[in-house]
Amino acid sequence: MEKGLMVVVSGPAGSGKGTVNGHLLKRDDFVYSVSATTRAPRPQEIDGVNYHFISREDFLSRIASGDMLEYTEYCGNFYGTPLKEAIEVLESGKNLILEIEVEGAHNVKAKYPDAILIMLLPPSFAVQEQRLRGRGTETEEKVLARLERTKEELSVVKDYDYVVYNHDGKDIEAAEEILAILKAERASIRRNPSVKENYFA
């Protein structure tokens, strides 16, 4: 069975990550990475679906043993991607989508160099600002903070493998572009080092 691909999709607020990834997840060859957390479940949240809810001791043990692809501590709780569960998905032949921030993406690439890092962006900074203001759900202060954060995120875009632009009303096309990237990756010589041996076998 061909091994699945680990796909990291990052992008600033307003890039449409959830929508684009949602199109990919409608396919049966994609699985969304369920993060682990030490926080208590909220009402209606299901263990193994929304998060893997584990104890702080368990989380710290996983960090110590190298079984967290990436993690962060936020408001006194840990959040991260369990390595064992991620590898199990890949070994099943399915592609694993991680929708994480740039710091997490950097850590994933360091621990799993085969990961494919994709930066999803609105067509421009001006369009991003229009989208954030168009939501009408955040204060001016939050909008400005998100826009400022984008400058930090784009400062490390050189560490990514690909950039995909999500134009207004073209989220399906953005998902199809990601599929094309993965198709090309599967055909790369880097992922097929035994071409000569297999050909003459």
- Biggest β-sheet: count, sense, barrel? 5 strands, parallel
The beta-strand count equals 9
Task: Name the poorly predicted regions.
Answer: none
What Rg do the Cα atoms give?
A: 18 Å
Distance between the termini: 19 Å
- State the order of secondary-structure elements, H for helix, E for strand: EHEEEHEEHEHEHHEHH
Describe this structure as you would to a colleague.
With 201 residues, the protein is α/β, with parallel strands linked by helices. It has 8 helices and 9 strands. Strand 5 and strand 6 (77-82) form a beta hairpin.
Task: Give a quick summary of the entry.
The protein is built from eight helices and nine strands. It has 201 residues and is α/β, with parallel strands linked by helices. Helix 1 packs across helix 7.
Helices and strands, with pairings:
Layout: E1 6-10, H1 17-25, E2 30-32, E3 36-37, E4 52-53, H2 56-65, E5 68-74, E6 77-82, H3 83-91, E7 95-98, H4 102-111, E8 116-121, H5 125-135, H6 140-154, E9 162-165, H7 171-187, H8 195-199
Descriptive keywords:
single chain, 201 residues, alpha/beta, four-stranded mixed β-sheet, 8 helices
